[in-house]
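JOB MANIFEST
job_type = single_chain_structure
chain_count = 1
residues = 174
[input]
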Amino acid sequence: MSHLTDVIVPLLLAAVAFYALSRKVDVYSALTAGAGEGLTILLRIFPALVALLSAIYMFRASGAMDALTDLLRPLLLQLGIPPETVSLLLIRPLSGSGALAAGSDLMQQYGPDSYLGRTAAVMLGASETTFYTIAVYFGAAGIHRTRYTIPAALTADFTAFFTASLLVRLFFGA
């Protein structure tokens, strides 16, 4: 006998297909149009993603990430933030996919159930890709001057990182 979770996705797909058919929607055309849009988006963001990930790996390979981690270690320890999360702290405001890669690296190195893995996961969920979000939303609204938005958003990101470290330590221990 299969588990309920083994049949949920096929049942959801069938329900959506039957609903679309009842509304006389051409499901195949809608599916291929959506796939085409997905590929267009992929082609648009792929160069930026490759450049960003290359820059991150070069930053790490050059030893600059280790030097910055060593420089910030006393301050981060005073604040209760694991110094190993420096890459995540620096990348998250810039790129969600880059931050996800940095978080994934931390989880692979230390394990997802470790203090660092849990802290990285909570940091990822509690913070935002500040500069991307500002560019998209302010650009869509035609706003060119961000004034206090960036300092306020970066303060919120730092607060999220600090609070994530604190709450993981409180709930799971260090």
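[summary]
Residues 27-61 form the longest helix (35 residues).
The mean pLDDT is 86.
exit_status = 0
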